[in-house]
Structure formats: C-alpha cells, structure tokens
Amino acid sequence: MITESPGGQIEIAGRLVSRLGLSTMHLAGRGAWGEPTSRSAVLELLRTAVYTHGITHLDTSDAYGPHVVEELIREALHPYPEGVLIATKVGMVRPSRDHWAPLGRPAYIRAAVEASLRRLGVDRLGLCYLQRLDPEVDVADQIGALHALRQEGKVGYIGLADVPPADVRWVSHFAGVDVVQSRLSLEDQDDPLLDLCRDKGIPYVASRPLCSGQLAGDVPAALSWVLSQGGHVAVVPGTSSVQHLAELVQAASDSAGHLSGQTRDPRRGPHPLTP
After folding, report:
1. pLDDT at residue 89, as a whole number
2. Does domain 9-268 have CATH number 3.30.530.20?
3. 8 A C-beta contact, residue 65 and residue 89
4. pLDDT digits (tens, 9 = 90+) for 139-179
5. Which of 48, 79, 95, 180 is most buried, taking the most CB atoms under 10 A from its CB?
6. Residue in 51, 64, 157, 204 annotated catalytic
7. Three-state SS for 233?
8. How much is the pTM?
9. Strand 57-59, strand 85-90: pairing
10. Does the annotation count 64 as an active-site position?
C-alpha cells in the first residue's frame, strides 16, 4: 500500500485520511440499484483506489444497491488495511430504483446499523452518517439512536449527510456531530454549512464535486476549487472507471500543490487569499 495521500490529509473520525476519498455510489447497478454489470471490475477499482492510489476514505451507504456496495467493499478489502476509513450511511429506504425515502425511527436506525456491521464484517462502524432526516420523527430521537449505538461501541463517530443547515446547527450545538457531508461544486457553490463547519471545527465532506458528471470534462478545476475552500474540506467524487479514478487522483494531487491558495472559480483565473 502506498503512503502518499492524494490531495493531502485531513483528520476525520479520529484518524488521518486522504482528502480525496471515493464515493461508492456508482459501484452498484444503474441508478445505484442492484448488482453492478461487472462485479470483478468493481473489486478491481476498490483495490486500485486503496492499494495503488492510497485513498483511505471510502464513502458508502446501505442504500446503494441497496446493500450491494457494502458487500462489495467487504469482498474487495476485508480484512481492511490499517488506516482505511469506511464511512457508511443509514436512514434511507429504497422500495424501487427511483424512490429514496428517509426513515428515521430509532428501531430502524438500530437495525440498519447492525445490518451494516454484518455486511462490512466489522464490530464497529468507524463513521456512520444519518442520511437526511425523517420529517416524521423528532430529530433528537434520530440522533439519539446513533448516540446510543456509539455508547454500545457499535458506532465510532457520527455524521450528518444531506441535512439542512438549520438542523445541522441544532444537532451540532445540542447533541454533537462529528462530520458533515453536503453537496458542493463549481455549479453549486453556496452552502452555508461550509462556514458553519469551519467555525465549529467540524470536517466537511463535499459530495458530487463533479455535479453528477456535468463537470467531468474539467476535473482539475472542479476538484481544485472544492479543495481550496479550506483545510477542513475533504471530497468524495464517484466513479466506476479505473481510468477516471487515476484522473481524479492526479487532479487532487496537483491541486494540493499549486491551487491550495485559491478560493474562487479557477476558470476565472487565480485569486490568492488575502489576509
């Protein structure tokens, strides 16, 4: 396993991981539904990400498949290399390919975490996100379910993914949150959670930095802009291609060098930070 971390390193869930992570959403079938077209190709990509490129931050969800991708991660990498963080999400059900619905009942969250533990082959989830919030369940009950699981040793760190800023403020102030994941890209730049996380010292994980493929033609600019938003920012682009993965790694490594001082759209030219 190589030691260089693409994009540099960031502390998430109590460990130093690569700022460039990998979203595994695209590793299931079309629309993150069902089995992939080529199981062997997915296993190769996961192993290449970790063992060749040094990516130590894998982002997944029990909703990808559903359940398929967690099983693929275990098949590809278990027993997991030291230092690799597998962050998964719970709280979302998918009765069909195009239907994603939050389900935050504490009993369901508990069952989902315990099922993810079995699929991933671990005794504790290093980082477990609540994926969106269920409007039918009190926020405190949803977060409380994860806190109870943490007290039992089944969850290490707690995150929120795709949650409105007002709810993140409430949770981070009263109940505690360790990591926030939210969409951020050149086409979707205005996220108040970015500054909230900076102010509270919470790692911010940017999802969909290529805007669901719309920015795939300019990967260096897209990743450089996201990574230049602050040292508290990590990024988890998704791909199912080993070649595209190598492009992502190269772009993140380059941005760590000569674009880390920019905070505006690099397509408009350099704009160094001012004091």
Report:
1. 99
2. no
3. no
4. 989 999 999 999 999 999 999 999 988 888 878 776 789 99
5. 180
6. 64
7. strand
8. 0.91
9. parallel
10. yes
